[in-house]
Amino acid sequence: MSGGQRLFGRWRGRFAQAATTAAEPAASVSVVGLQVWIDDQAIVQRLAGPLRSALALPTHSSTRLQDCVQPYSLLVLEGEPADWQAQALDLDFKTPSGGTLHTRGWLQAQPDGWLLQLFDIGDLLQHRQQSVRAERQRHLTSHLAAALRDCSIECLGRVAQEQLQWLVHHWRASGGRILLRGEAGWQTYATSSDPLPWPSDEVLGPLLGRLAPGQMTSSADDAELRELLPQAGAYLLPYAQGHCVQAWLICVGAHEAMVAADALNACAAYAEPLVSRLAAFDLQQQSERLDSLQLQLGAGWWQWRLSEASLQLDPGLAATLGVPARLTVSQCLSRVHPADREAAQLALAELQRDGCALHLNVRLLDNNVQANPRWYRLCGQVRGSGQQRRLQGFMLDISDIKFQQVQASAAQARLENLIASSPAVIYIQRYAEGALQAEFFSASLQPMLGWGAVGEEVLQPAQWVHPEDQPIWLARTRTLLREGQVRSRYRLRDHLGGYHWVLDEARLLRDDLGLPVEVVGIWLDVTEATEAAERTRLSEERYRVLVEDSPAMICRYTPELNLVFGNQPLADYLECSTAQLPGINLGQWMSAAQREAFVERLAGLSVEQPVSTAEICLTLPGREHAWWVWADRGLFDEQGRLLEIQAVGRDNTQVRRTQQQLLQSAKMATLGEMATGLAHEINQPLNVMRMAVVNALKRLENGDVQADYLQDKLKRIDAQVQRASRVVDHMRVFGRRSEVEQQLFAPWQAVEGALSLLAEGLRGKGVELRVETPAQALMVSGHQDQLEQVLINLMVNARDALLARREQQRELNPWIAVRMQASERQVQLLVEDNGGGIEPRLLERIFEPFFTTKPVGVGTGLGLSVSYGIIDAMGGCLSAENAAEGACFRIELPVHSTS
Ligand code: ADP
Fold first, then answer.
1. What is the 3-state secondary structure (H, E, C) of 392-431?
2. In testing the pocket of ligand 1, which one of 812, 830, 846 has its CB within 8 Å of the most ligand atoms?
3. For the residues 448-463, what does the mean pLDDT come to?
4. Rg (CA), the chain
5. Which residues form the Histidine kinase domain (predicted)?
6. I need a surface site. Which of 48, 181, 323, 487 has the fewest CB within 10 A?
């Protein structure tokens, strides 16, 4: 049986009814399908059969078979009908509606032409197309699923995008996008590489929520979707697991209507691996995070199926503890520190029995016995029932916390101990509605104020405040609340009624919002310090009065001589008020030399030798020279640097003046003693002059006057006048008052001055002067006239001794030797005579005032005493000794170094 006949048989059955109902004229062949009689030129002669009505009927009699078929069927109908014999002819006829009728048939020769017997094969074709499409669909889905399943998780995003692109291409659409359900709603996972203006996830998301979860939705049916999506012909395909949509695949710009089942199928093939892989990846990451968390926390789970003998430990935790992951309960308990074992046993039993939650802190022993046991927090609860009943929980390493707890409680204990033993009282006041309520006092309150147990009275410290200090207490609270901290000092009553001065340092603590919470403060008992300060103040007051009322000048000044403070007597001397004293420089009243000496003396002050006294000379405003006896005491810092000087001064001007007067009168006395010598000194030139005048007059009377002779006499007279006037001049200089301040001079000048007054007189008395003029001219500091006076005293004394001796010893050749010996630092002037010296017993008394061996009215006994004072004031020394033939007086003076 040929294929055509098989078909015929099948189609015959199908159209049998149609054939019987069709009112067709009887024909030689069964009336099924379509029969077309044509002639040799393929002109259609007649049509028959039920399909005839489905055809576009020929409009004129000469219609050819070719005119009735679709153009592509013309290929089958090439040539003459005779050529088409003995082969299956697949012809697609045009239908009046513009459609196509698919037929297959055979050409049979007929006596008067040809009969074309055709059957409708539309169903057959459709069936084949469906199976082809199903095959393609299967291929598509397996391809998609394989691609998304097989790629690595890192490439999943890229592969998803490529596959989406491929799917969109397959659907002949212009773009596609996949959105997945995320924690934050719908999120685009991949988009085909299209440049379309896709709406954002935030806009799309809510819309997706409204769509039917199990159906494909077309934009053609939904105005909002049309608006929103970038192109027409859009489809939204859900992928659901259970009732929950996990993904939406959106395809836009589809050229032809999509078959919902196929599209949903492809969507599922695409989304399912994607969703499940991402979920698996999420899960994996979550578990990794959990593991890492457990590891870092030193935590892990444990489980004990009550039907089993051993319990199970988290492998990580087991490794940390150094135990197998599966171990029996007794093994487990053996790792618990003996101190905690019983508690652990009881807690486990309770958990097992009553099923109440387990919370226990235990120490677990390490494999290393030496190591300290680690603390673990053990939590657990009962899960399941029957055979499935199990204890489940976790363990957490809390050693760090425990260690910190131990440290914190030790620190707290120390702190509490410190607070309790502190000499200060630490208190806390709670803030409530603008008021402060005492809440806590440290134990030191008892020893300080005697208030013991916290009672009603103790909680109201305001009641202890001294009545006079209550305004201070109220101001303290106000300042504290306003500024957050305060420092005040007031008196508190103790339990015996006595008062204590306390220093209160308080601080207000605030919460996160800046609202006051409590006040923390301390009370320091400063009674002793306050009373000591008061005593000091009183004593200072007394000293101040003492200083202010003292007749002595009292002051403080800096090493630069600037006054810091001075009392009234000092201000009176300086002719200003005490307030004006600070800042005044003391040096301004001193001469340059005085100032230099003063500063030098201060430089000599040290911690070991802080006191120095000197007599200073000042030139005060509108006054003569003032002499002050000045005592300085240096104040030093820790490094021994001079900070300030305290000084007490006494005006010594009067004493000085008296001394000067004494000197003067001594000088005058010397002059008096020298009177005979001086008379001789002046007489001598007068005698010479008188002789010259007498001789000149005689010559004039005799008329024997020559000019040369007169000139000679007058020159002699002139020389004698000069000599006499030199003596008188020097006497005048000598008789003058000494300069106020010491001067620099060469000591030999004084020797020469003394000799100018005495030499002639001595020679006149037959005393030989042995003077050795020195080579060097060294300088000493002092008053030249005073040294001259000393030398005169010595020479006059020598003269007296010599003259006295000569009276007994006529043959004596009296002499006085004056010479100078000098070293680098000292000058010695020696006055020696051959007057027999001083009796050794008297040697130490001769410098006493009023000691004299001379008869009354001759000696004053002051000469040597005054001389000693003068040399001493010059920083030198006057001494006497007996030499070979007489006395030898030695004046030692310090050489003034010019450097
Ligand atoms: P005055 O000359 O008025 O007695 P002085 O003080 O000068 O007072 O001398 C005191 C005494 O020292 C003298 O009286 C004398 O005895 C003794 N004296 C002083 N110089 C000499 C001397 N060169 N030789 C011996 N005795 C002397």
1. EEEEEECHHHHHHHHHHHHHHHHHHHHHHHCCCEEEEEEE
2. 846
3. 72
4. 72
5. 677-897
6. 487
Q: Is residue 819 part of a domain?
A: yes
Measured distance CA(827)–CA(744) in Å, rounded: 14
Q: Is the CB of 444 under 6 A from ligand 1?
A: no
The closest of 533, 616, 548, 612 to 578, measured between CA atoms, is 548
CA of 846 to the centre of ligand 1 (A): 7
Joined together, the tokens standing for residue 306 give: 């009550």
Using a 6 Å cutoff on CB, does residue 797 contact ligand 1? yes
- CATH code for position 78: 3.30.450.20
Token readout for 442 is 């440290």
Atom of ligand 1 nearest to the CA of 798: 23
Ligand 1 pocket residue status of 835, Cβ below 6 Å: yes
Q: How many whole angstroms from 781 Cα to the centroid of ligand 1?
A: 27
| pLDDT tens profile 506-558 | 999 999 888 899 999 999 988 888 888 888 889 888 888 888 888 889 999 99
**In this structure, are 767 and 794 located in the same domain?**
yes
How much is the pLDDT for 683?
Answer: 77
d(CA 242, CA 562): 103
Model confidence, pTM: 0.40
Same structural domain, 528 and 615: no
Q: Are residues 313 and 342 in the same domain?
A: yes
Report the DSSP pairing between strands 185-191 and 826-833: unpaired
838 within ligand 1 shell (Cβ under 6 A): yes
Closest CA to ligand 1's atom 21: 797
For the Cβ of 861 lying below 6 angstroms from any atom of ligand 1, the answer is yes
Q: Indicate if 562 and 631 belong to the same structural domain.
A: yes
For the stretch 634-681, pLDDT in tens is 999 999 899 999 999 998 888 888 887 877 777 777 777 666 667 767
Examine the fold and report which residue of 606, 630, 651 is the final residue of a domain before the chain moves on. 651
Residues 774, 648: Cα–Cα separation, whole Å: 45
The answer to whether residue 409 is domain-embedded is: no
Going from the C-alpha of 639 to that of each of 11, 501, 601, the distances in angstroms are: 133, 36, 20
- Statement to judge: residues 510 and 594 lie in one domain: no
Last residue of a domain, one of 731, 752, 769: 731
The pLDDT-based confidence of 422 (bands split at 50, 70, 90) is confident
Average confidence score pLDDT of the chain: 86
CA of 650 to the centre of ligand 1 (A): 36
Report strand pairing: 625-636 vs 642-651. antiparallel
Do 764 and 871 share a domain, yes or no?
yes
Please check whether residue 141 lies inside any domain of the structure.
no
List, for residues 72-124, the tens digit of each pLDDT value: 888 888 888 888 887 888 899 888 888 888 999 999 988 888 999 999 888 88
887 lines ligand 1 (CB under 6 A): yes
Same domain, yes or no: 666 and 524: no
- Residue of 864, 870, 891 to mutate, ligand 1, most atoms within 8 A of C-beta: 864
The total number of structural domains in the chain stands at 7
- Provide mean pLDDT across the span 577-590: 90
Domain that holds residue 83: 34-127
Whose CA is closest to atom 15 on ligand 1?
853
